[in-house]
Each structure stands twice: as C-alpha cells, then as structure tokens.
Write a structure and sequence with these properties.
CATH architecture of the largest domain: Roll
Radius of gyration: 25 Å
Mean pLDDT: 94
Largest sheet: 9 strands, antiparallel
Strand order of the largest sheet: 14-11-12-13-26-25-24-18-22
Structural class: alpha+beta
Number of domains: 3
CATH class of the largest domain: Alpha Beta
Strand content: 35-45%
CATH superfamily of the largest domain: DNA Polymerase III, subunit A, domain 2
Length: 367
C-alpha cells in the first residue's frame, strides 16, 4: 500500500475513529485502526466489538492495500507531522513508513486479516432526522442513562418510534428524561441504544449537519453522520414501562426562572461531599422556595421568590441529579410539578410537551 493524504483530514479521521478503539483488548488488532486504500479514497475504522466507527477520506492511492496500525501511536504521529501532505507506505513485512517533509517514521503494523469484521445486518427500518434535532434529543436525555452494569438495559436509552413521533427515554432509577419530536414515520418499533454509542454520535454531529440517517436491524443499529458511520449493538431486554411511572396528580406547581433555581441549588451543592450525599431540602410554601442543606462541613440557606400554586410541600433531592435535570432543559423558565414529598419532581418547559424530566426525591430526616 502506498498513499498520499492531507494531514488535517487524516488527523481528524483518526482522532474520531480512535474513540471506538479498545485500550486493552484480548485481540491485539483491536487496539489499532484499520486503514484500507482502494479506488480514490481510504477507509479508516475503529472497533471494540461493541461499537465501530468508520469514515472515508480522499487520498491519492499509488498502490492499494490494507494495514492495521496502533491507534494511539499513529494518532500522535499524524498530529505532530510538520507538513500538510503525508505519505504512508507499507511493505510485505507489515512495516509502515510515514513521511511528511523531513520527518520520517517506521512503525510495525499488523495484517488486516487479524482485524475482526465489523457487523453487517439486514435493515428492518430506517429513519432520517435533522442532525440538530437528534443532537438536542440525545443531549437532553443521555445524562439520565445508568452507569450501573448490574442492569444492562438501563445503560442505554429507549428509542421509541410511532406514527409521526420519535421519542428517546433514559432512566437510571433516580431520574428519567423523555424527549420527543415529530418526524415522518409510519411504523411502530422500539429498541435500546447504548449510552456510549449515543455519546459518540453526539460528538460527530456538527452544528450544520443536515440529516442523520439511522438504520436498524434485529441486533444492531447504524448512524450515518456525514462521512462517518457508527455501528453498534443494541441492548437486549425489557425496558421500564415509563408511562406508568409519571405521576398523574399535580398537587403543587410553580413556574420559575431556570437560571435562578439552578444557581440556588448550585450554592447548596458547595456543602455536599461526593462520598456522602446530603439532600438539598426544598420547601415550597407561600410565595417562595426555601432551599437548605446541612452537612458535616456546615449549613447553607437560600430563597427564590416565586408564587406557589397548590399545597405547601417540603422535599429533598440529590443536588447533582436535580442540577443535571435543570441544566438539560432548553428553556428560560421551567414548570415544576409535585405530588407530595415522596413522589418524583416533574420538570417540563412552560410551553410545549416535547421534554419531561423526573427526579426521585431523597427521604428527609426530621432533624
């Protein structure tokens, strides 16, 4: 194989696909990236048996071929090369020669035969959605994906398709986030996409991305984002019946400036240690929300003036869970709904119903 390629194109491609590379793999080739040179483009792939990222970039190909090179080493070399044009050549011993200007490297590669094939699957359905919308939907829900592998199904989000509606639902036992959007769709289906996969897709969607095409098979999903393809396993299992967990009664409601309540909870968080979580106590009464926090290192109090509609209620929350829910709602004002001190807090935009977030309260002591 012998190719010439632009360094900036190569560096960006290698950086992005390397995120799907295993740092410690039982198969040595999986710690590398696969480079294929055919036609007028090179294909670069990273794969860790769970998720694979592939892209193509233009190149001048003098001789065709394939090679696997260390993702970490190759990425560092390409990033620091002095000139814009990079020449990459391999020989029969799998030695890879990298030249740019006066800089020359020789690194040991591996045969592409040792690299596992990325999954191929029969497409059951596909949808196309604006990149900006998908980016927003993932961003507003993926924070609520569980990082606890004891229940693997909740380490992903439920993608739910119904007629002209697309929903993403994430839940970890302490909070839940639901984001929906109208799209052109006639079929009904649902599948669970790993949180890791969504985060990689999120990084690849640019601000001016037109459409992202999503193809779904029996056990795999593929996101086509510009020149990138992200293929991933789906998570098998039974997801929570999320609709039944949303409280129907709303005994207390308040519309409050989002920034004001975030700042108040953030100030209480200063007294919370990471190892021992002390509830942020929220007292909804009269025309104010009174916040307080008592921990081993001190006490804090704050007040946000805002009219309360309905019953008075005192309720406690994990400060991080509450802050993440509030920070991921794209609205200057939020509506907070409560149904007593033990039911989840419901956070929604003041207008529209495309986003809902639930945060489960912490029990408060009488002290």
């Amino acid at each position: 194989m012998k190719i010439n390629v632009l360094r900036t194109d190569l560096a960006e491609a290698v950086m992005n696909v390397s995120r799907a590379v295993s740092s410690k793999a039982s198969i040595p080739a999986l710690e590398g990236i696969l480079i294929k040179a055919y036609g007028e483009k090179i294909t670069i792939s990273g794969y860790d048996l769970e998720i694979g990222i592939t892209t193509t970039i233009d190149a001048t190909i003098q001789s065709q071929g394939e090679i696997v090179v260390s993702a970490k080493l190759f990425s560092e070399i390409v990033r620091k090369l002095p000139e814009e044009v990079v020449c990459i050549e391999t020989d029969d011993r799998m030695i890879t020669y990298i030249t740019s200007g006066q800089a020359e490297y020789q690194i040991v590669g591996m045969s592409s035969v040792e690299y596992p094939d990325l999954p191929t699957f029969e497409e059951n359905e596909s949808i196309s959605i604006k990149g900006e919308i998908l980016k927003e939907m993932i961003k507003q829900t993926v924070y609520a994906v569980s990082d606890n592998n004891s229940k693997p199904i909740y380490t992903g989000s439920l993608f739910e398709m119904s007629e002209n509606c697309f929903k993403i639902i994430a839940v970890d036992g302490y909070r839940m986030a639901i984001r929906q959007e109208e799209i052109e769709n006639k079929t009904e289906s649902s599948f669970v996409v790993p949180g890791k996969t969504q985060n990689e897709v999120l990084k690849l969607i640019s601000d001016d991305e037109e459409n992202v095409n999503i193809s779904v098979g029996q056990r795999h999903i593929n996101f086509k984002v510009g020149n990138y393809s992200v293929i991933s396993r789906l998570i098998e299992g039974t997801f929570l019946d999320y609709k039944s967990t949303i409280p129907k009664d709303r005994k207390t409601e308040v519309v409050v400036n989002t920034r004001s309540i975030i700042n108040a909870v953030d100030r209480m968080s200063l007294l919370n240690a990471d190892k021992i979580q002390t509830p942020v106590r929220c007292n909804f009464s009269g025309d104010e929300i009174r916040f307080s926090c008592i921990s081993a290192i001190g006490k804090a109090n704050d007040v946000v003036k805002v009219p309360i509609i309905g019953e008075d209620v005192e309720i406690g929350f994990n400060n991080r869970y509450l802050l993440e829910a509030l920070r991921n709602i794209d609205s200057d004002e939020v509506k907070i709904s409560l149904n007593g001190s033990l039911a989840p807090m419901i956070i929604t935009p003041v207008k529209g119903d495309n986003f809902i977030s639930l945060v489960v309260p912490m029990r408060l002591s009488n002290a």
